[in-house]
Structures are given as structure tokens and as C-alpha cells.
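Regression test case RT-17, inverse folding.

Input:
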């Protein structure tokens, strides 16, 4: 009758300090790799969240800019002078002003 090799190595105590050192080193390496993986996953999720926030801010700025341009165009169509802050933001646009 044969003994399974896993049972033999799993139940047998290490024979010397070198074996213990190798077992400890292997255990520490596994722990390190697990922590490294967790750290990388956490960093990737932080990067993804930051990208999502940046994209959200960019879209919000585009909407605000579109709204400001629309209000400048509306005021131009109605014959009113645009508000000073909106006039600065709409540089390069032609505005007819009657004096």
C-alpha cells in the first residue's frame, strides 16, 4: 500500500532549519503577492473612479458652456447687449451694437 505524497509532505515536520526557512519564505512570498494584487486592484479602481469624475466634470463644463453660448445668442437675437462675463467667454463672435 502506497502513501499519498501530499499526505507525507503535509504531515511530516521539517527536518532542519533550512527547510523551515524555505517554508517561511514561500509563505511570505505568497502573502506579498496577495497584498500586491490587492494593492494593484485598489489602485486600478481609484484610477477608474478618477477618470469617471474627470469625464463627468468635462461633460458638465460642456453643458455649461453650451448654455452660456445659447444665452448669448438669445440676447443677441433679442437686441440686448450680452452680459459682460458672457461677452468675455464668447470671444471671436461678432456682436452688433447700436449706438
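Golden output:
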Amino acid at each position: 500500500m502506497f502513501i499519498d505524497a501530499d499526505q507525507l509532505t503535509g504531515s511530516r515536520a521539517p527536518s532542519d532549519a533550512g527547510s523551515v526557512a524555505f517554508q517561511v519564505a514561500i509563505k511570505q512570498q505568497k502573502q506579498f503577492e496577495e497584498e500586491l494584487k490587492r494593492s494593484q486592484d485598489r489602485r486600478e479602481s481609484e484610477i477608474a473612479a478618477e477618470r469617471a469624475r474627470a469625464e463627468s466634470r468635462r461633460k458638465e463644463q460642456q453643458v455649461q458652456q453650451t448654455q452660456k453660448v445659447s444665452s448669448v445668442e438669445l440676447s443677441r437675437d433679442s437686441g440686448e447687449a450680452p452680459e459682460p462675463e458672457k461677452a468675455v467667454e464668447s470671444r471671436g463672435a461678432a456682436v452688433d451694437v447700436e449706438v
